[in-house]
Design brief:
alpha+beta, Alpha-Beta Plaits, about 25% strand, about 100 residues
Length: about 100
């Protein structure tokens, strides 16, 4: 199992839209997340900053992420969510953070 922490920043005028979208996340997108071996997926908001946490329980992360990226429903979802990000024009969304501490 691999743990991921990610950071992103929203455009100020898109914060409420991003919250609204995630308050009613599409069931087929959630199924795809699960089928691609992501678990314990959470997104936190602090001002315009987002922090995402998830655990990957599969065997081939790159293959699973490619399958998610190729999914038409997920692509449609992203057509709504990605424009909310501050660096959408540069196609920068969530960026991986380095884990510096973990304790079970």
């Amino acid at each position: 199992m691999r743990r991921f922490g990610q950071h992103a920043r929203l455009r100020s005028e898109k914060v409420e839209e991003y919250k609204r979208l995630h308050a009613a996340a599409w069931p087929d997108v959630l199924k795809m997340i699960s089928s691609c071996n992501l678990r314990n997926y959470s997104i936190y908001l602090f001002g315009r900053d987002l922090f995402a946490y998830f655990e990957y329980v599969g065997e081939d992360f790159d293959t699973d992420m490619a399958r998610m990226s190729a999914d038409p429903v997920t692509q449609e979802w992203w057509s709504h969510t990605k424009p909310c990000f501050e660096n959408h024009d540069q196609q920068i969304y969530y960026e991986d953070m380095k884990e510096i501490f973990h304790w079970d």
